[in-house]
Specification:
single chain, 14 helices
Length: 322
């Protein structure tokens, strides 16, 4: 590890932040296969909204247990953006995409666009300033994945692809706002308050969907729904937002480029989906791009590493004053 004009603390924060972000990605990587499991017996809207209702109950208990103070002023607007992106938008749209024929493996590669979208929102909403090299590597990953979707759609984007692109757009907003708020309150409180904020909508809608959609609670459906409600919708964000608060939204978001690789692995193991050469090549290209982004500089406007340029070199971290 090499530090220039800095103490050891910022480097330790950066390394810990990368680990937390990676833990969040690991939790999210099984979301698509778990959703496929749940679709075996449940309505897609029930999966997309019901998981938020279950997570909201857990969030309310957690906030009450620690007597968490209420968010202040503009924090409520940020929490509403988090809810719109990661509580409603991504869960519902991605579930509909899978219900309309997208395989878990195909959706996983499309999700590789999310880091680039999140990096853009980090600039617009959190004042972060990634370097030119960062944008080149991130843009290459985004372009690689867009070409993959176009080729697999026989020269056009399918309805499922369009739903996935919409899911990515709103999720990027939720990620960026959550990462920004995690500088002011603990990451687990960000997702908890976002879930509680919209519980007056998600809970009654979930009960209505339970009564009208005729769910079939098979073993696979229960397992899949439980995972997306507990891990994808709630616990995974504990580590994810904490990682963003430590190392910055743009830098942390690029760790998620590894998510397609993991999801492809899970899809092959538990769903017996064929991971063909084209899909594997797309995932490999994404992996190369994430390696490049993690070697670039991102200057942050505020937070634990405020005023520092954080540059990662494999397992070494340089923290320098600009």
């Amino acid at each position: 590890m090499r530090n220039n004009d800095s103490a050891t603390a910022p480097s330790s924060i950066a390394l810990g932040g990368l680990g937390l972000a990676a833990l969040g990605v690991l939790a999210f990587s099984f979301t698509m296969p778990a959703t496929v499991f749940a679709l075996g017996g449940l309505d897609p809207y029930l999966i997309g909204i019901g998981r938020a209702a279950v997570a909201a109950a857990l969030a309310a208990l957690a906030l009450l247990a620690v007597r968490a103070p209420l968010p202040r002023g503009r924090q409520w607007a940020g929490l509403a953006a988090v809810a719109g992106g990661v509580v409603f938008g991504f869960p519902v749209l991605s579930t509909l995409a899978l219900d309309r024929g997208s395989s878990s493996a195909h959706a996983a590669v499309i999700v590789g666009l999310l880091p680039a979208a999140t990096a853009v929102m980090a600039v617009l909403r959190a004042g972060e300033r990634p370097s030119r090299a960062f944008w080149l590597a991130s843009g290459a990953g985004a372009g690689w994945i867009t070409c993959f979707a176009f080729v697999r759609g026989a020269g056009r984007f399918t309805t499922a692809d369009l739903l996935l692109f919409g899911a990515l757009a709103v999720c990027a907003v939720g990620y960026a706002e959550g990462g920004r708020l995690a500088r002011e309150m603990a990451g687990w409180r960000v997702i908890s308050w976002a879930l509680v904020l919209v519980a007056p909508i998600t809970v009654p809608v979930t009960f209505w969907l339970l009564a009208t959609t005729g769910p079939q609670w098979t073993g696979r459906a229960v397992a899949g729904f439980s995972y997306v409600a507990l891990s994808s919708m709630y616990l995974g964000f504990f580590a994810w937002y904490a990682g963003m608060a430590r190392i910055g939204i743009a830098q942390a978001s690029q760790v998620q480029l590894t998510q397609p690789i993991l999801t492809l692995l899970w899809s092959g193991l538990v769903l017996d989906e064929l991971v063909d050469a084209t899909t594997g090549l797309a995932a490999l290209g994404v992996l190369v791009c994430v390696a490049l982004t993690q070697r670039t500089r991102v200057r942050r406007a505020s937070g634990p590493l405020a005023g520092y340029d954080v540059v990662t070199h494999d397992e070494r971290v340089s923290v320098t004053k600009p």
